[in-house]
Write a structure and sequence with these properties.
Length: 280
């Protein structure tokens, strides 16, 4: 038991080292080129300068005063914290609305051929249109602030969840359906106990893609329609030619996106334990 656990730990450590080798090498080369003067610091600042700016972006906006605020409130008062919270709020609200609309429609389209034929032509026309193309209409309809951003994120989340749900329901193995019918299952039982569980891996994949798309859309929408968030801060930094803050913001987006995707991946793995057991 101990030897197996030790081998698993060594394998994970080796895998981690392999994963960070290329990024670490790239950063080291970037730093070296900057120190040797081969790179214009106004165009591409050194990693050390970006790290300093990122810390300043993360640090609290005012000195700690015990009489005015608690230590926890001071720690979480940095500009980056506020921007990340604003972006996450829009992503969560937009994704929940988009997925909440897409899931029942996708289940209905996948399970009923008439519903599928009724909605599919319109959806196939709308699906290739990127959410960014709706920005002028979103501002015209909703003005500025959170509403247009959430509308765009809803569009970004809607189609991945919808198409994967439809695909999952329509590709349920016919053997399962025939077996359930032979055992006397009615339509409701067939849908809830056979079709929906079999389509769950597709639905969760669509949700993971939808979250990723939502995060991309929120950054774009924040550059257009709102006055806070990670996307807005990058655009603001461009106006003042703060290249180090632009890259620091991009780095923050990457870390936040990685955290969201890792969370979704672990959630999928947890919810699909039964599915992997069937496959094995």
């Amino acid at each position: 038991m101990g030897g197996k656990a030790g081998n698993d730990g060594s394998s994970r450590a080796l895998g981690f080292l392999r994963g960070v080798a290329i990024p670490a090498t790239a950063v080291a080369v970037w730093q070296l080129l900057s120190m040797l003067g081969y790179v214009n610091p106004l165009i591409l600042p050194a990693p050390s300068a970006v790290l300093v700016r990122w810390y300043q972006y993360l640090a609290p906006m005012e000195p700690y005063d015990p009489a005015k605020m608690s230590y926890a409130a001071w720690v979480f008062s940095g500009e980056l914290i506020h921007d990340a919270y604003a972006s996450l709020y829009r992503v969560v609200v937009g994704f929940l609305i988009g997925a909440g609309l897409a899931l029942p429609l996708g289940l209905a389209m996948g399970a009923n051929e008439k519903v599928y034929k009724f909605f599919d032509p319109l959806l196939q026309v709308l699906r290739p249109i990127p959410p960014i193309a709706y920005i002028p209409l979103a501002i015209l309809w909703f003005g500025l602030g959170n509403p247009p951003a959430i509308f765009l994120i809803t569009l970004g989340a809607f189609f991945p969840v919808l198409m994967n749900t439809v695909s999952g329901v329509r590709h349920v193995d016919g053997i399962y359906i025939r077996a359930a019918r032979n055992l006397g299952a009615d339509r409701a039982t067939l849908f809830l106990r056979v079709i929906l569980p079999a389509a769950t891996p597709y639905i969760l994949t669509g949700a993971r893609i939808g979250v990723g798309t939502s995060f991309i859309v929120v950054i774009v929408s924040e550059m257009i329609a709102v006055n806070n968030g990670l996307g807005f801060r990058i655009l603001e930094a461009r106006e003042f030619f703060w290249s180090d803050k632009i890259i620091a913001g991009m780095f923050s987006i990457g870390l936040l996106g990685l955290g969201i995707d890792t969370g979704m991946n672990r959630l999928n793995a947890y919810l699909l334990k039964w599915h992997r057991g069937i496959e094995n």
